[in-house]
Write a structure and sequence with these properties.
This protein has 509 residues and is of the alpha/beta class. Helix content is 33%, strand content 27%. It is globular. It binds adenosine-5'-triphosphate and magnesium ion (MG). This is Xylose ABC transporter ATP-binding protein.
């Protein structure tokens, strides 16, 4: 019999009112890459938290065997000692520590009780090199890096623990194609070294590229576990959602509307590096009833552009902006909302959600004026609206009073989207809206976007997932190092064209 690196047997884990895992069985062979798939809220992260000791023995039922030996982890440290390292879905780095400090956090090397910084920084450099970040200094403050880079640092941190079983819970959600390619290459190398890898991702193309075996969870149950060679993407999707999903991208034709947003000669400066432009003399228009996709590499300035337009970026700006034909000068998010803009940010913790508040309050947070009468919130209305969004977006939660921090990652993202839809925007800006969202729910989000188009809303969508940009946008603007690298009609755009422009190749299409 083949040795199993890991066996999880009849694992059941309950939270108040939720059975997150129901007798789950999960077996992973030594040295394989094993993908764990399932819809938002299926139980993937919970299963991995059980495995990594975050939920200690005694808080769940069932048995865990590592290399055939029963293990009862009382703490994350115990799991680490058994060679299990996990990278969580939500970034866990401390933003105001340096990269080196983060890498060694909880594991500080000391000589005679004094931190050995020379060692820390030397080691850090070598791990950063392994994840393709050799340009980053170990004493760089982590929070000043982009999300994509921070994600790679998480990975470097897990690698540095010399894991035998490496768990990656949506490691590539925030990465661009190029960074994803680096990561997948690293994982293939690891496989050659005999490291076992558990890989959670909603991006099925990655799963099919890297995984040897795929296990599918649905509603806390193990639905299937099969070699990848016996499966197809469509098959995995139907196992995940429990029905066939015929099309992935329901594009509707653009409505021909008036110009909703006109941006001219727009330049934005980096607040932390005087003189450095994050957006350089950019001009574009957004029409009513269209989706303008924005593509580019991480660090190209896409998020800075939309944050600045939304009055949420510290850096100085120059140029002109007109909404619905009228010049505007937006200096705060409040003003942006008043002008009919809404922004679904990529960093949901910073701009999106209050994690310890419930769903109802989070959804209504930015539109209190529309549900209050003379400043008093109408609770009934708040509930009615909240329930509407839960249904439309298929948010998986017990009730509107569920605290957002306890929702699965993808369901938190849906709450952010609901919150901004409720402001009834004229211009809706979505920054990586479907990051971490399962295929079924993505489809629902595209449908909602299409509905909004027919109501005359203009939509900007930043996305690092090329199939998504190509599948739903009407026009695609590519930004490279803060500059316009081309605007393409979807009919003439292909992955190759977009990538060439993003990396500084072509100018116009
Ligand atoms: N700490 C918690 N308290 C209460 N309920 C929880 C908690 N953590 C998870 N849940 C619930 O358990 C279920 C499974 O959540 P889990 O995070 O494992 O899903 P997931 O498969 O990782 O989904 P996603 O793809 O969205 O990340 C969900 O219904 C979630 O709301
Ligand atoms: Mg999860």
């Amino acid at each position: 019999m083949e040795t199993m690196a890991l066996e999880m047997k009849t694992i059941t884990k309950e939270f108040p009112g939720v059975k997150a895992l129901n007798q789950v069985t999960f077996k992973v062979k030594k040295g394989e890459v094993h993908a764990l798939c399932g819809e938002n809220g299926a139980g993937k992260s919970t299963l991995m938290k059980v495995l990594s000791g975050l939920y200690p023995a005694g808080t769940y039922e069932g048995e865990i065997l590592v290399d055939g030996v029963v293990q009862r982890f009382g703490h994350i440290k115990d799991a680490e000692k058994a060679g299990i390292a996990i990278i969580y879905q939500e970034l866990a780095l401390v933003k105001n520590l340096t990269v080196g400090e983060n890498l060694f956090l909880g594991n500080e090397p000391s000589r005679f009780g004094i931190m050995d910084w020379d060692y820390v920084y030397l080691e850090t450099e070598s791990w950063l090199r392994q994840v393709g970040l050799s340009g980053i200094k170990p004493d760089r403050i982590t929070g000043t890096l982009g999300i994509g880079q921070q994600q790679l640092i998480e990975i470097a941190k897990a690698l540095s623990k010399k894991a035998k079983i490496l768990i990656l819970d949506e490691p590539t959600a925030a990465l661009t194609e190029k960074e994803v390619a680096i990561l997948l290459a690293i994982l293939k190398e690891f496989k050659n070294l005999g490291v076992t890898c558990i890989y959670i991702s909603h991006k099925l193309n990655e799963v099919f590229e890297i995984a040897d075996t795929i296990t599918i969870l649905r509603d806390g149950l193990t639905i299937a576990s099969q070699p990848t060679s016996e499966l197809t993407e469509d098959k995995v999707i139907s196992l995940m959602v429990g029905r066939e999903l015929k099309e992935r991208f329901p594009r509707v034709e653009a409505q021909s509307g008036t110009t909703m947003l006109a941006v001219k000669d727009y330049t934005v400066w980096d607040p932390s590096q005087p003189g450095r432009k994050v957006i350089d003399n950019l001009s574009f228009e957004l029409k009513q009833g269209e989706i303008l996709g924005i593509s580019g590499l991480v660090g190209a300035g896409r998020s800075e552009l939309v944050l600045s337009l939304f009055g949420a970026y510290e850096g100085a700006k120059q140029g002109s902006v007109a909404i619905d034909g009228k010049p505007v000068n937006i200096r705060s998010t409040q003003q942006a909302i008043e002008h009919g803009m809404a922004l679904v940010s990529e960093d949901r913790k910073k701009y999106g959600l209050v994690l310890d508040m419930d769903i109802k309050n989070n959804i209504s947070l930015s539109s209190l004026h529309s549900i209050s009468v003379r400043g008093v919130i109408q609770e009934n209305q708040e509930i009615a609206v909240g329930q509407d969004y839960i249904q439309q977006l298929k948010i998986k939660a017990n009730s509107l009073e569920t605290v957002v921090g306890t929702l699965s990652g993808g369901n938190q993202q849906k709450v952010v989207i609901g919150k901004w839809l409720m402001t009834k925007p004229k211009i809706l800006i979505l920054d990586e809206p479907t990051r971490g969202i399962d295929v079924g729910a993505k489809f629902e989000i595209y449908n909602i976007m299409n509905q909004l188009l027919s109501q005359g809303v203009a939509i900007i969508m930043i996305s690092s997932e090329l199939p998504e940009v190509l599948g739903v946008s009407h026009r695609i603007m590519v930004i490279s190092e803060g500059k316009m690298a081309g605007i393409f009609n979807y009919q003439s755009a292909t992955q190759e064209v977009i990538m060439a422009a993003a990396t500084g190749g072509i100018k116009h299409g």
